[in-house]
Design brief:
By secondary structure, this protein is α/β, with parallel strands linked by helices. The protein has helices spanning 31-37, 62-75, 88-99, 122-130, 139-146, 153-160, 177-182, 184-188, 214-223, 239-242, 244-257; strands at 4-7, 17-20, 43-46, 81-86, 104-110, 163-165, 171-173, 201-206, 227-232. A seven-stranded mixed β-sheet has the order 1-3-2-4-5-8-9, sandwiched between helices. Strand 2 (17-20), helix 1 and strand 3 form a beta-alpha-beta unit.
């Protein structure tokens, strides 16, 4: 079963919000958000398969990942939830909502659309896979090794959160990096389906990101005809991190509206 953390207490009076991270993220990406939201509703942050402390298993197809989430909801006896996902997690959320709409009360998708994207992170993944982790004595050494490939310190810090120390003080990737890399092209795509989700949905884009540009948004509207688009102009692909206050307000308003 997927690894998860509950913020607040599950109860029959409030619909819990399930939140899902993007590629190479984990449930802790949502810690600050969840702590703010838990006064209003219980929040369940989870690690998707092959990420964080969730099981390392074969396959990274979106139907498999959606089934993982459904299994967790069943284990927690949750008939219906609000569902939010960022990037890869947003695609999991969309697939689940399209195929199990009765389980999703409200859908929020963060800076992604149900379309295929260019393999922008292939070089990054290869660099991570090639890192000689056994040679590094400190995380700073790992950061320095990755710096020529990934210029932004913020992005490197995000990725290197996946590193852990084993009992011999050797660094290793906590995520199943090899499996993620092997199936990366499937993650950039979105499986074909004729289904639509006719409940209200919110898509949140970063104003400096092109993931929800005009063409992807048009495709999203075809599959989610009741969706509306909100833009956080000062953010890129990580609006929940880059502009946390504006993002939290946007989500809060959307959940309170319905």
């Amino acid at each position: 079963m997927l690894n998860y953390q509950i913020y607040g207490e599950l109860n029959t009076a409030q619909t819990p919000l399930v939140v899902m991270h993007g590629l190479l993220g984990d449930k802790d990406n949502w810690r600050s958000f969840a702590r703010q939201q838990q006064a209003q509703r219980p929040v369940i942050a989870l690690d998707l398969r092959n990420h964080g402390a969730s099981p390392h298993v074969a396959g990274m197809e979106y139907p498999l990942m959606a089934d993982d989430v459904l299994a967790l909801l069943d284990a927690l006896a949750l008939e219906q939830v609000d569902l939010m996902g960022h990037s890869m997690g947003g695609k999991v959320a969309m697939w689940l909502a399209l195929h199990q709409p009765q389980r999703v009360k409200r859908l929020i998708v963060v800076d992604i659309a149900p379309v295929g994207y260019p393999p922008r992170h292939q070089t990054l993944l290869q660099a991570m896979l090639n890192m000689p982790l056994h040679q590094f004595k400190t995380r700073r050494e790992a950061d320095n090794w990755l710096a020529p490939t990934i210029k932004q310190p913020f992005e490197r810090a995000f990725l290197l959160k996946n590193l852990s120390w084993d009992e011999n003080r050797i660094l290793y990737w906590q995520c199943h990096l090899a499996e993620i890399g092997q199936h990366y092209l499937k993650l950039t795509a979105f499986p074909a389906t004729e289904l639509t989700y006719i409940k209200p949905a919110l898509f949140i884009r970063g104003g400096r990101s092109d993931y929800l540009a005009a063409a992807p948004w048009q495709t999203a509207q075809q599959k989610f005809p009741q969706a509306r688009l909100a833009s956080i102009e000062a953010a890129g692909h990580l609006p929940h991190v880059e502009q946390a206050d504006a993002f939290n307000t946007c989500v809060q308003q959307a959940l309170d509206e319905h």
